[in-house]
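Good morning,

Attaching, inline, the backbone tokens for the sequence recovery test we're adding to the shared suite. The designed sequence is right after.
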């Protein structure tokens, strides 16, 4: 299921939030160990250096062309991310339907928080639930909720990164419990960094 980390790798992590408390679901120590090892082998994020390139002198034609190319690449990545978010939403609802569960409704407020977290993970190159309380609190400012949960995942080197993430979640008891949970709203965020790594966040809300 897990290919060599140099060519394709995937990790998942799940958290469950009940009002006023966070409870981790079956921490995967082996996965965490792999994540720490890979983190040490990937010490730097080159996104900052690309930002520096973007701030080069605009009077230089090659610099202007480089920025234009970066803009096209960024638009392509954003389009891919949106497509993957929609694909994951469809796959999760298909799974719930097959298991006799009501479909989830997509919510833009929740998706915004999920997307921002995936972007933060992609930038730091670290899979985590850091800031989960803050994300749910931000959602709670406009959506009253009774419970919330979050699944996150990372992979690279796969032709269908969305399917790889969902399959990883479904095969894990903790993630599957979140997917099958008594929730009615969801938001999904996907982000890719300059190294080609994909990061995924799905937040579940019960109103």
């Amino acid at each position: 299921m897990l290919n060599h980390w140099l060519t394709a790798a995937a990790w998942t992590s799940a958290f469950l939030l009940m009002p006023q408390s966070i409870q981790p679901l079956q921490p995967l120590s082996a996965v965490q160990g792999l994540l720490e090892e890979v983190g040490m082998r990937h010490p730097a994020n080159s996104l900052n250096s690309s930002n520096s390139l973007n701030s080069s002198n605009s009077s230089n034609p090659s610099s202007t062309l480089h920025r234009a190319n970066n803009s096209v690449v960024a638009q392509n990545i954003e389009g891919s991310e949106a497509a993957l978010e929609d694909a994951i939403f469809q796959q999760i609802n298909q799974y719930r339907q097959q298991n006799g569960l009501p479909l989830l409704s997509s919510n833009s407020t929740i998706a915004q928080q999920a997307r921002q977290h995936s972007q933060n993970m992609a930038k730091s190159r670290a899979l985590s639930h850091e800031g989960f309380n803050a994300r749910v609190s931000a959602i709670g400012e406009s959506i009253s909720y009774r419970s919330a949960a979050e699944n996150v995942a990372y992979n690279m080197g796969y032709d269908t990164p969305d399917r790889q993430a969902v399959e990883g979640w479904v095969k894990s008891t903790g993630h599957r419990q979140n997917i099958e949970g008594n929730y009615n709203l969801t938001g999904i965020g996907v982000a890719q960094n300059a190294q080609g790594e994909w990061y995924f966040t799905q937040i579940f809300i019960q109103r």
